Amino acid sequence: MLGPNVAWYLCVAAFLFSTGALGVLLRRNPIIVLLSLEIMLNGGNLALIGYSRHLGDGAGQIFAISVMAIAASEVVVGLGLVVAMNRKHITLDVDRMNTLRG
Amino acid sequence: MTAGAWICLLSPLVGALVITLAGTRISRRTAAYVSTLSTAVAFAGALTAFAGLLGEQPHERHHISTAWTWIEGGSYQSGLSVLVDPLSVMMMLIVSGVGALIVAYSIGYMDGDNEERRYFAYMSLFVFSMLLLVEGGNLVLLLAGWGMVGLSSYLLIGFWHERPSAIAAAKKAFVMNAIGDATMALALFTVIQKTGSLSFGALGSVHGSTAANLIALGLLGGAVAKSAQLPLHTWLPDAMEGPTPVSALIHAATMVTAGVYLIVRTHVIFEQAPTVQDVAAGLGAATLLFAGLIALVQVDIKRVIAYSTMSQIGYMFLGVGVGSYANGMFHLMTHAFFKALLFLAAGIIIHSLAAEQDIRKMGGLKRMLPKTYWAFLIGSLALVGIFPFAGFFSKDSILAAAMDRGTYGYILWVAGLIGTFLTGLYTFRLFFIVFGGEPSPFAREHFHALRRDVVGISMAVPVAILAVLSVVGGWIQWAPFWHPIEDWLHVVAEPLVSPKDWQEWTSSALALALGSLGIGAAWLFYGARRRPVPRLAFAQRTLEHKFYVDELYDAVFYRPSSAFARALTAWVERPLILGSGREIGDDTRDLGGWFARLQTGLLRTYALAIASSLAVLAIVFVAVK
Lengths: 102, 625
Known about the structure:
- The structure holds two protein chains of two kinds.
- Chain A is mostly helical.
- Chain A has helices at residues 6-26, 30-55, 59-87.
- The radius of gyration of chain A is 17 Å and the shape is elongated.
- The N and C termini of chain A lie far apart (54 Å).
- Among the domains of chain B are: 278-537, no CATH class; 551-624, no CATH class.
- Chain B has 25 helices and two strands.
- Chain B has helices spanning 2-22, 28-54, 86-109, 116-135, 139-157, 164-195, 209-226, 235-238, 244-254, 258-265, 267-272, 274-295, 301-321, 325-352, 365-368, 370-384, 390-403, 406-435, 441-446, 454-472, 484-490, 501-527, 537-544, 549-596, 603-624; strands at residues 63-73, 76-84.
- In chain B, strands 1-2 form a two-stranded antiparallel sheet.
- In chain B, α1 runs antiparallel to α2, α3 (86-109) packs antiparallel against α20 and α14 (325-352) runs antiparallel to α20.
- Chain B is globular, with a radius of gyration of 30 Å.
- The A-B interface holds A 21, 24-26, 28, 33, 94-95, 97-102 and B 595-604, 607-608, 611.
C-alpha cells in the first residue's frame, strides 16, 4: 500500500468537515454558508476515498463521484436562490430570513 | 265480518293520513268532515262485525284475521292480526260510535281555532289507536295500541301548545302513562319467558303463582295508569287543559276505559292471581271514594266531571275486580254515553260563556240554555244512577256483584254505596250552581247563544243523540229480568260471581236512596240555599289540595330527582363533561404553543441542533461500542 496510513486521510477529512461545519454555524452570509457546505462535503468525500483505498474497494470512489454530482446541482440551486434574493434587494443574511418561525 | 273489523280499524288511520298529507290543500272544514267520516265509517265497520257475530252460535264467536306475520324470531311469532269476538266488538262499537259523535261535535267546537287540521288528524289517530288496542289479536298489538293511545292523548292534551299549563299537563299524562306502559311491558316479557308466545291464549298456560302474580301485577300497573286509578291518577284532572271534546274522548271512549278492557281481556291471568284481582277491586273502591270527595270542592266545571270519571272508573274496577266482567263492561258502555253527554254539554256552556270554566262565575244558565239544561240534567241523573236513567242499571249490578263476594265484597259494597251518595252530592252541586238561581252578572255579560248553522247543529245533534242514549242505554240489561250483555260476554269471560235477585234489589234500593239523598243534600246547600254550606276548614283545604297527592309526589319523586340532577350538573356535568372539553382544547393549544417556540426560523439554530445531536449520537455510539 503506497502513501501514508488511512488515519492521516481521516484526520484531514475530519479537519475539513469541522471547518465547514463551523462555517455553516458561524457565518451569516449565505454564499459563505454554501461554500462551507462544499467544504463539509469534500471532507466526507476524502474520508470515503481514504477508506476505499485502504480497503481496496472501488465503491467508496463511486460514492464520492455521486456526491460531487449532487453537490454541483445543489450549488446551482443555492446560488440561484442567492441571485434571486439579491435581485429582490433582500439582505444576504441567513438570520433575517426567519419567516418559518412558529 | 273480519272485513268489517279491518275497515273499522283502518278507516280512522286513513282519515288521519289523508288530513296530514293533504295539508293546506283542503280547507279546515273539509279536514273536520274527513275526520268525522272516517270515524263514522269505522262505526259502520263495527256494526258489520257485530251483525256477523249475531248470526253465529255463541261458541263460534271467535275469529282472528292475520294480515301478515309481523314479528318472527326463533319459535316466537306474532302477526298483525285483528281479533273479532263479543268483547272486542262491544268495545269497537263504543269507541267508534261515541268517538264519531264527539268528532262530529268538534266540527262546531273547534270552528275557527288555529290549526284545526292538526286537531282533526290527531282525533282520528286517537280513535285508531284505541281501536288497535281493543282489536289487536295478540298482546303485542294491544301494547302497541296502548302506547299509541298514550301518544295521541299527549298530542291532544297539549294541543294548545302556546299555554305552558297545557304542555305541563301533556307531559304529566305521558310520564304517568309511561310508568304503566313499563310495568305492562315487563309483564309481557314474563309471559314470553314463561310461554314463548304473546297470544291471548298463552295467558291460560302460565302456571306457577309467582309468575302469574307478577304478570297480573304488571298488567294491573298498566291498567291503573291508563285508567287514572290510585296511585297513578294525578294526570287525569290536569288533562282538562285540552279542548273539551278531547276530554270527552279521553273519558268516554278512547282512553281511560282501556284499563277495564285490559282486565277483562286478560281475566284468565287475574283469576290465577286472586290477590292481585282483589287489589284491583280495592284500588277501584278507594279511587271512587277519593275522587268523589275531591269532586265536592272543585270549582272548574271540567275538573268536577273529570273526578267523576275517576270515580266511575273506580266502580268498573270494582266490578271487574270481583269478577263481574259483564257488569264492568256494561257500566263502561253506559258511562261512555252519559260522560260524553256531560262533557259535550259542558262544552256548550263553556263555548257560550266565552271559554269560562269557573263555576263560581256561572249561575242561572237554565233560562239561557234550556236545551243544554235538560241534556245536563239527564246526564247528571244517569251519573247518579237514578231510575230509569242508564247509570241505574249498570252501577247497581256492580254493587250487587260485590255483595256476592264474601266479607271483602261487603267492604267494597259499603264503599260503593257511600260513593253513590257522594256522586249525587257533587254532581248536583255542580248542576245547581251552574243552572240554578238567577243569571250571574258574568253570564249575562258574556253569554252568546249557539247559532243555527253548521257550528250550532254539529254541536247540538251529538248532545241530543247522547241524551237519548243516556236514557235508553241502560235498559239493554236489567239484571233481575233480562241480561243480554251477560250472555253476550259469557263466552269471553265467565263471571266469578252470580248475584241473587235479593242482592240486586237491595243494592238498587240502597243506591237509589243514597243517590237521592245526595241530590237532596245538594239541593239544600246549593239549590234552595236553605242551609249554609258546612265549613270544615281542614277538610276543605285537604280536598282542595286533592289529598296532597301532587305535593307528595312532588316531594318524594320530583324534588329528589331534580336535586340529584342539579348535583350532577354541578359536580359532574360542568367540571367533568363541559370542563374536560374546554380543558383538553386549552392544553393541546398550550402544548402546540410550546413546541411552536422551537421553530425559530433561524437556519443556523437548526444546523446547530442537527450538528450537536449528531455529535451526541456519535459519542454515545463510540461509548457503547
